[in-house]
Amino acid sequence: MNFKTVAKACVVSLLVSGPTWALAQNQINMAKGVTEVGAQIYGLHMLIFWICAVIGVAVFAVMFYSIIYHRKSRGVTPAQFHDSTQVEIIWTIIPFLILIGMAVPATSTLLEVYNTDDAEIDILITGYQWKWKYEYLDEQGDNVVFFSNLATSQEEIYNTDAKGANYLLSVDEPMVIPVDTKVRFLVTANDVIHSWWVPELAVKRDAIPGFINEAWTKVPTEGVYRGQCTELCGAYHGFMPIEVHAVSREEYDAWLAAKRSEKVAQTAAAQQALGFEELMASGEAVYRAQCSACHGAQGEGGVGNAIAGSAIALGEVAKHLEVGIKGVAGTAMQAFGGQLSDVDMAAVITYQRNAFGNNTGDIVQPADVVNHKQG
Amino acid sequence: MGAHHGPAKGMSRWLLTTNHKDIGTMYLWFSFAMFILGGAFAMVIRAELFQPGMQLVEPGFFNQMTTLHGLVMVFGAIMPSFVGLANWMIPMMIGAPDMALPRMNNWSFWILPPSFLMLASTLFMEGGAPAFGWTFYAPLSTTYAPPSVTFFIFAIHILGVSSIMGSINIIATVMNMRAPGMSYMKMPLFVWTWLITAFLLVAVMPVLAGAVTMMLMDIHFGTSFFSAAGGGDPVLFQHVFWFFGHPEVYIIILPAFGVVSQIIPAFSRKPLFGYASMVYATASIALLSFIVWAHHMYTVGMPVAGELFFMYATMLIAVPTGVKVFNWITTMWRGALSFETPMLFCLGFLVLFTLGGFTGLMLSIAPADFQYHDTYFVVAHFHYVMVAGAVFSMTAAVYYWIPKWTGRMYSESMGRIHFWVSFIGFNIAFFPQHFVGLAGMPRRIPDYSLQFADFNMMSSIGAFIYGASQLLFLYNVIVTIVAGEKVGEDKIWDGAEGLEWTVPCPAPYHTFEVPPKIDAVSAHA
Amino acid sequence: MFRLSQHPTIDTASKLVAVSIAMFAFVFVVMVPLYNVLCDALGINGKTSDEAYIAISTEVDVSRAITVQFVTSNNNEMPWGFKPSVPMMTVNPGAANDTVFLAANGTNEAMVAQAIPSISPSRAAEYFHKTECFCFNQQPLDANSSTQMPLQFIVDQALPRDIKTITLSYTLFDVTGMVADKKVAAR
After folding, report:
1. Is residue B511 within 8 Å of B92, Cβ to Cβ?
2. pTM of the entire structure?
3. What is the pLDDT of residues B100-111, one digit of tens each?
4. What ipTM was predicted for this assembly?
């Protein structure tokens, strides 16, 4: 068997077996999209794909005919023609006409994407390194604000735990929107450029610090739609997913009301003193969501300094609060003061001072956080 | 150096040389070294992506790898390789004794290695190498950049100066050094595409220099070009960058078109079809490249009128590009084809570049691009045009001209093995990336969700095969140089045309010291 | 043709060097100012003019009401409190409107802030005129103090009929210790 036969066998087996094996279990095409705009974009994508496929088949057919029949080994004498204005004009004009045929539907879809009028709900989306903040704008100014963090644990990412079904695609607090309602997204960023993308809603908009962009969706069916940040935004760019829950109007109203009362409860909780066990328990949850990516699941450090045995965690409480609330300028350590509630801040500081062998015994209360913020 | 002397001996031959062939050789070896370095970075990327979960490197280091891979491949491997080819071939193709500005030629090469040394050294600096992607969008590359960004900026400045000097040299050579009778429309197409490329380089490398200079000023001198706080705008960076960046992708691909336009007629034993339309198509692609840059930024929130303008302009590029593909295929039509290694790489180029062209057309459609933008679909697209386009044609060029350079023939069977291994490896690596991209995998992520696992593993395996095939290439080249069969005649390929085939093999140190007579009929292929 | 040197090669090379220097200058003296002009004119990024608008017509279009929505964000580590006094207003095109934004510096240090406006939809930006805005200047604030920052605006009568809601977003940046005049910085 010579080399040519082997090579051909390889190509053929690859062409036949590869795709069939892969097609069976993997998505190979664009999400059809649940929204009207999504369906239009999908249709456009398929239209252009088929146009390209037809042109491709025609072009390659001519090429392979030539490769097979016009070979020197068949003893052919080469023709010597090298010009034909007529032919060249034809193959300039025909592609041009095909392009016009593509441009028409593309233009109408684009205009539809840009039509943000008459939205009932406005949500301000702010990209942070590396999480999303959602702010539901309220006519009375009683906005509901929360952060949406990656819910996948460090153990799953570092392969010590089995990876769950929605590995890297689930968050602690999803965005909730009602179905059959036009929702407008105002998109901006806090630090670097991010991009908010949910494939099934066919919404992708860059989040640019200082400026505001807009997009919209109207979801007809209830469900969970997932996406990711699509603009390189630093080390943990791959770890800031998006999860949108489209629910019935009633469910949405109930959820919004619950969020409002949660806010009131948090303000009240900030006035109260909490027990050590309680602080440690919620502090651990906050630590896993907010701190562990940089500081390590066991406080051993990584991108950030180690927490275990660190001078800050073992030193003065005030200094520790300062770093947690205001961050450290010029480093990846952000100011968490605006991102965590006072209760969560108190809990996580307490946790850091008493976990990983840092047995300081200090208890930091929400009131301490409030006082520190006020100077 | 006197006209009839051979090369100087030892290191000074290479350090001080003003000979276009020596400088061409150095460019080619340098770019190959960079290709291996950039390839090593790619191997780290694909190894990390072999399975879901963080396996080998940390996310921050992964970003350094993607950044350096892009920078090294674009500025270190592909561009200098074509400059090397231009140095070797353009004087021989137009019947000139050397480049027009030989001393500047020496400088433009010798400032390159320090520049890349500086870039590579950032890997060992505090805070690590640049980790903001080869497109280095502000403010990630300014306010939020590691301290090594300053070295990155200087490296870009130096390689920009090198590229500009190289281009000036090429333009000056083509405009002033052609042998009598070698009119513009008689020049081989490789010379034409390089002439146009060189004009593009002179026009846009200073724009890149401007962009990085503004970054430098923002970082160190308190200006706010790209920071909203001081009245600037991060989106401005993207406009300036892509005003350079889009012509840049044609800078990479046009010389590749030139190479293919030399080789396909040679192995079809038939003149290139539509020489004049090839020249006009190349020029119109170059002109169009200045008005399409914002198609890289459909999602930044441009006014709808702007989106439409850039969409239509981008779609138009399909017309001249289509003309080129049709011309190549018509060149083959009713020829007498044979399939030596250079021709195989050109056919690989033709098939895969056309696929990359189709995905490019899909990407030009703004509403559809909202779903494609910054996913692996884009990664697949540009690797089809950059690797299967530029790198395949460069490889074809090496096999095609290496007998002329060395006076020795490569091993045809080894060449064919190299082609098939790289063709198959390339497709296993990059074809599945279309699928994961469409299914929703963003680019530049070190870890991915489970539904992308199978295709990523496949992609990694393909990448390792393609990577290994380049070692085969290195082996082939070295074996040819030291032990290849000596060739006796001037014209190696029976179908080849052009002045370079009228000089002996290997090409003597000095050629065309007396300008050749140009045969009116068969000057270009 | 104009020649820079008797020697044709040197002539070509000199011209090309001039072209590349011109292209480098082009970035600074053409692209950047042109981009800023285009942004102001076309509302790219929802940018508005950073100069006070001189009202030319006082005719009020009472036939339609436009909802103007106010949104505030703090950039990165900006610790101030910052919010609109009212979340939204309903206004008639052509009428002058007043509102204030509230800012509080709760830190122990005097700081300087710069608010950057951005309008959505961006094509409304050219019809949104600010006759007075705290965003025209940097805003210094002493430690532990608060202030009311005024905004006065007119929505142009020529605003396209299909735009019914305009969102005005302000992002507050900490510019303590930065170049004092933003116009010097960027232009």
Report:
1. yes
2. 0.89
3. 999 999 999 999
4. 0.91
